[in-house]
Amino acid sequence: MKKKSTSKSAFFNLRVLLASGLCLGAIFVALLGMGTFSNLFAQTKGTQQPGVAGRQDAPGTQTPDVVRLVGPVVVNTAVRDLPYIPPAPQILTERMIPHSRPNLKEPAQSETSAFPQFQSLLKGIFHAMPNMPPPLLTFDGINSSTSGCGCLPPDPNGDVGPNHYVQTVNEGFRVFDKSGNPLGPFTTYNSFFAPLTGTPCGSNQNQGDPFVFYDQMADRWVVSDFAFVSYPGTNFYECIGVSQTGDPAGLYFRYALLVDAANLDDYPKMAMWNNPQPGGAYYLAASMFDSTGNLVGDRVFALDRGSMLTGGPANAIGFLFPSSVTYHLMPASFRTGTPPPAGRDEFLLAIDSPPNGGVVQTQVHGWLFHADFVNPGNSTFGIGPNHTPNAEVAVNSFINACNPCNSSAGYDIVPQQGTTQKLDTLGDGIMIPLAYQNRAGTESLWADHTVLLNFPSGPAAVRWYQMDVTGGNFPGSPLQQQDWSNGNDGLWRWMPSIAVDQNGDTAIGYSTSNTTIFPGIRYAGRLAADPPNNLGQGEAVMTNGGGAQTFNPGRWGDYTMNTIDPSDGTTFWHTNEYYPTTSSSNWFTRVGKFTFQPGVSPTPTATPAQCSWGAGPNMPTVLIRAVGVYFPDGNFYTMGGRTSDAAGSDFQHVLKYSPISNTWTQMGVTLPDNTMNNMACGVLSLGGTPYIYCVGGSAAGQTTATARVFYYNPATDTVTPLTAADNWPGDAAGTILPGGFAETGNKMYILGGFNINVASTNQIWQFDPTQAVGAKWTQMVNTPEGIMYAPTCAINGIIYVGGASDYSGGTVIDTTNSFSFNPASNTTGAIAAIPRATGETRGLNFCNKMYVLGGGRVAPNPSNEVDVYDPVSNTWSLGMPFHNPRRNFPADTDGTTNIWLSGGYEPTTPAADMEIFHCPVSPCGASPTPTATATATATATATATATATATATATTPPPTPTATPTPRATPTPRPRPTPRQRP
Question: In the predicted model, what is the mean pLDDT of residues 894-918?
Answer without folding.
Answer: 95
